[in-house]
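for the writeup, i need someone to sanity check this before i put it in the appendix. the sequnce is what the collaborator sent (i think, or maybe the updated version? ugh). structure was predicted straight from it, no edits. if anything looks off just tell me and ill rerun, i have time this weekend
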Amino acid sequence: MKRRETKYLIVGGGLAGTILARTMEKYGQDFILVDNPGKSNSSRIAGGMFNPVLFRTLGKTWQADEIIPFAHGFYPEFEKELNQKIYFPRKLVRILNQDEKAKWAEASKENDFLDPEIKSYFSQDIVLQPYGGAAINQAGNIDVKLMIESYHHYLKKQDRLKLGGVHCEDLAIHSNGVSWKNIHAEKIIFCEGFLVENNPWFSFAPLKPAKGDVLLIHAPQLKTEHIINKKVWIVPLGNDYYKAGATYRWDDRTETTRQDTLDEIITSLEKFLNVPYTILDHQAAVRPTVGDRRPLIGHHPEFESLLIFNGMGSKGVMLAPYFADHFLQYLTGKREEIMERVDVRRFQRTWDKNKGE
């Protein structure tokens, strides 16, 4: 088999790997993306929302003023090039409780993502909202599954997509890069989601995976294009279909659905959703959340040819485009270093300690 040379070998074709590959293409970088469909499914079942507000405090999410505008530029451009409708800017309507209603107006003075107007966005016989609702500005959702499938189809035609699992024992590290099968790359970038826990080079990063369950429902009487949030969220898919979820489980690494989490979503929905609905599907996956809730980006502490782009967690749709661009600026020499808050080397002490044991 003829040896193939590339600059970057990207391992993992979920949200992070796909957006990183797309950003590399924009920067004119040579790469091959390796995907193992079905191994980790959090990207493919995700609701794909971007929400710049922390409901607990009604403050802005971390870096929202930079990340949200970047996402609103990235996805429409990507959508146009894919020739697929993947980008849906929408109002996100928060169904308020009594305490939130009292705090919302004051919080909106400090947070311009909060619409100060409180009103009933729905009839009470459709959505129960005794204290009204309020909208989040610049929110929306992405059809992540369609985005991934469409871009992978494009990469396959470009001969830049390989299917299969990359096992660490099959990688050879050289002074001038890494080899896998017939491919030699200057650098390898791991975008494996929660499976990075099993990666001997990056398992030192304190991942705190969060399993989540999501439902596909049919609700013909709901008739909304808004995202609805009250403990759980409802995201419109069109033609009266919606995704509803999601749960958080910190002690389960399987992608098997659970009855208790199904019951949890149903209980939450029935506290505010007053129209009948049919559950058509129930899926589960594990989000790659990091202990400090910041991404993992950059070089391995010891091996310069090993890199990571991971840990986007539940806000991956918002974070990935901005930090993929940040990463490419670094890799192409347009910036000197990676932001300290996301640099994987912030956990180097753990690697050094484990290596010494």
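The chain has a mean pLDDT of 93. The longest strand covers residues 133-142.
thx in advance!!
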